[in-house]
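Chapter summary example.
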Amino acid sequence: MRKGRIRVLPGRGPNDSLTIDTADAPEYITTVLLRSGATKDDAEEAARRFAELPNEAPMELTGGRRIVKKLMPPLLPDLSAAAHNDRLPALVAYEFLALLIGDQVYKPSLDPIRSFVVGGTRPEDIEIKYHQAGKTYGPIHAILIQPVQPALSIQVRFFRWLTFEITIGALQYSGPDSIYFEELVSGESFFAATHEDAHHENWLKLNPPTQ
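The structure predicted for these 211 residues follows.
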């Protein structure tokens, strides 16, 4: 990544081929043709013709060389909702709730989410909505408690981008609206007892990295 753009580093490929970034192709074409005796105008015209070629269309240069423009394969993981099983964010939400309410997690009102996580059949009083929380990916996971009486809503965010909102109906929750997030690069985790604490930057660092 350079200046916000992904660039392909030059390197050797199969059958003694060379892989370069498409942005470097005009300079490469010009250099090869000039060394073979072509005029500067011919070399520059060849570079312009390559820029107009469609992908996978080969262009002959000289000395048996040819150059082909190819699409870059996907470099980022698929973080669409379709790539995930709803039982995963439901499990994350349930375990976070268990940390907050202790033994009360065994209440019958939480039987539906337990059944969903274990068996996969979603009951009527468990609702899971998907939406994007940000404009870009980021190395952060987060969990947010959002009481919405008489239900409880828990947001589970993966990579700052993918958000699952798990609503557990008819659950009387009187605890705090806590927030947890983890920075994946540094390995640090932070907890705020309430949204108000988070607003005032009152975060508790849970696991500072060892020196």
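To summarize the output: The mean pLDDT is 86.
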